[in-house]
From TrEMBL:
InterPro entries found in the cross-reference section: FAD/NAD-bd_sf
Protein origin, superkingdom: Bacteria
Record's protein name: Amine oxidase domain-containing protein
SUPFAM superfamilies (UniProt xref): FAD/NAD(P)-binding domain (SSF51905)
Residues annotated as signal peptide: none
């Protein structure tokens, strides 16, 4: 039997498998999907457009991740950040550069950053004032999380991966210096190309089974039952399946219903010809307006021109699916096309329409989430199960690609020797 069973071939599962390959420990990786990368996969449609499943920005805080990227051999574009807010969704006149708080003429008079904070709504009101809260932070975050902000914790704002110190948002308000222009790396061929190359160069050959779903796990026997009819015994399991599934494997339901994941339609439109001037230099746009179906749009052809091909451009929009008023995939595509027409995108030049519905978009940091996760982790590890990654760990603030990759590595080391898993629980240290 393999010493380790790895469930999922996204960033975390690949990180675990690379570490096991380095250690020479036998393992098996299974993934229900048809491609590597999980949420960081890339899809090329029938018209030749390449789509990521989200607006990914590649960061690195870890030497282990740097080594994996270098060993992959994948070339990188260095893309200049140029994010904008489409504040009212009514045309180019309401496009505002990010960060939006720096566009105020003067500091709000109702800032109170030392006031008590009970949830995310309090955090934004206290730190940015009622005007910015009402015009941007509340509507945008409600679209992104698909929940009222009173149900979302605020602690993630000081733990979000990428910052080693607590955020001090008031310093970025009116009168502060503009943020310096910066670039970020983006893999040639899309984010999925990076993870495919890491697999090809750093993972054990024949240790991966795609299109293979875990139907259930017997925690006492430490056996996984797969949909190909086979049974796999293991000593340890690194699972990136939703932690709600993992808790079902051990028959634990206490508090699980309080966990919430957003649902998203990833809608991509590919156009012939050049992009309109309003979008030609943008990397991404945020939109809080209820009249616009998406909350974030990513100009993938500005990340890598090959995502669209010569003489074409493409844009990916993330459309939230609210439980009380769900939007269908066809309606999401139609709504995206209409909204982009207001920014100058000619609907007559659309040559590709892509949509993929993600049942798990974001793991939402709801109130009480961490208490539940810590209790669940103790129960799962008692059965040799390490539930990690974007939804396995359910910690949004720990789920950038580099953090996910190192989560997998650290889970392996913790299982074997008790080495601390700082990346999962303490992203703010890096």
């Amino acid at each position: 039997m393999p010493t380790f069973l790895v469930v999922g071939a996204g960033a975390t599962g690949i990180g675990a498998a690379v570490r096991l390959t380095e250690l020479g420990i036998d393992h098996l990786v299974v993934d229900a999907g048809e491609r590597l990368g999980g949420m960081s996969a890339s899809v090329t449609d029938g018209a030749g457009f390449t789509w990521d499943l989200g607006g990914h920005v590649l960061h690195s805080h870890f030497a282990d991740f740097d080594r994996a990227v270098q060993a992959s051999g994948v070339q990188m574009h260095h893309v200049t950040r140029n994010g904008w807010v489409w504040l009212h969704g009514d045309g180019p006149q309401s496009l505002v550069p990010t960060p939006i708080q720096q566009q105020l003429a003067e500091l709000p008079a109702d800032l109170d950053p030392d006031a008590p904070i009970g949830h995310l709504a309090d955090y934004y009101r206290n730190n940015f004032g009622s005007r910015l809260y009402g015009e941007f932070f509340e509507p945008y975050n409600r679209k992104m999380w698909t929940l009222p902000l009173e149900r979302v914790d605020h602690e993630w704002t000081s733990l979000r991966s990428g910052s080693a110190a607590r955020n001090v948002p008031v310093l970025g308000l009116a009168g502060g210096p503009p943020a310096p222009a910066s670039t970020f790396p983006y893999p040639v061929g899309g984010t999925g190309a990076l993870w495919q190359a890491v697999h090809d160069r750093l993972m054990t050959p024949d240790a991966l089974r795609l299109r293979t779903r875990v139907l259930g796990i017997d925690p006492r026997a430490r056996e996984a039952h797969l949909d190909d009819g086979s049974t796999v015994r293991f000593r340890f399991c690194i699972s990136t399946a939703p932690v709600t599934d993992a808790l079902g494997w051990i028959g634990w339901s206490e508090g699980v219903s309080t966990l919430h994941a957003s649902r998203v339609h990833a809608v991509g439109l590919g156009y012939s010809g050049p992009p309109p001037t309003t979008l030609a230099d943008k990397t991404w746009l945020y939109c809080p307006a209820d009249s616009v179906p998406w909350y974030r749009a990513t100009m993938l052809s500005n990340y890598d021109p090959a995502n669209a091909g010569p003489g074409r451009w493409n844009i990916l929009c993330e459309v939230p699916i609210f439980a009380d008023d769900p939007i269908s995939a066809p309606d999401a595509v139609e709504g995206v096309q209409r909204s982009l027409q207001l920014l100058g995108a000619d609907p007559g030049k659309v040559v590709s329409r892509f949509v993929e519905t993600l049942e798990f978009g974001y793991p939402v940091p709801t109130l009480g989430r961490d208490r539940l996760l810590r209790a669940a982790d103790v129960r799962l590890r008692a059965h040799g199960i390490y539930s990690r990654g974007r939804f396995g760990g359910w910690r949004y603030e720990s789920s950038n690609q580099d953090y996910g990759y190192v989560q997998g590595r650290q889970a392996v080391d913790n299982a074997l020797s008790g080495t601390p898993e700082d990346v999962y629980w303490h992203p703010e240290r890096y």
